[in-house]
Amino acid sequence: MEEIDIRLLKLYQKGYKCSQIIILKGLEARGESNPGLVRAMAGLADGCGSWRASCGALTAGCCLLALYAGKGSDEETVSEKLGTMLVDLSDWFGERFGDPTGPMACKTFAGEGCGALVADTLAKVMEILEANEFDLTGG
After folding, report:
1. Which of 10, 33, 62, 88 gives a 20 to 30 Å CA spacing to 68?
2. Which residues, 6 or more positions from 107, have their beta carbon under 8 angstroms from its beta carbon?
3. pTM of the entire predicted model
4. What's the rounded Cα separation, in Å, for the pair 139 and 124?
5. Largest alpha-carbon pair distance within the chain?
6. Are 117 and 54 in contact (CB under 8 A)?
């Protein structure tokens, strides 16, 4: 098992959900912690609690992209790359895990494959950020 998979498994065993794990790993890469954000990400888990809404790994991946490229204060501007990065992730997710034009509801993906889904989604987010020349350490 790869190092990242072991770390993700340990976070899951500590009670974190898919969406929280993705943001925790993103914050860790930046050398940051933000318990409030991690707590808020629980709202995306399990298809926003109903299993019917979008997969928490996908929505958390989108949030992680926005953490790097979104607007966070009056002094900041949103990166012109954000929209394309979000589409890239959504398209990849649909092609990798299901119907590229169909729904991406949590209940479609939930089950034994969630661990791999989270790990693959996190890796894809990092790949997209690197390809778009974002400093993964947040510097």
Report:
1. 10
2. 47, 51, 52
3. 0.89
4. 20
5. 44
6. no
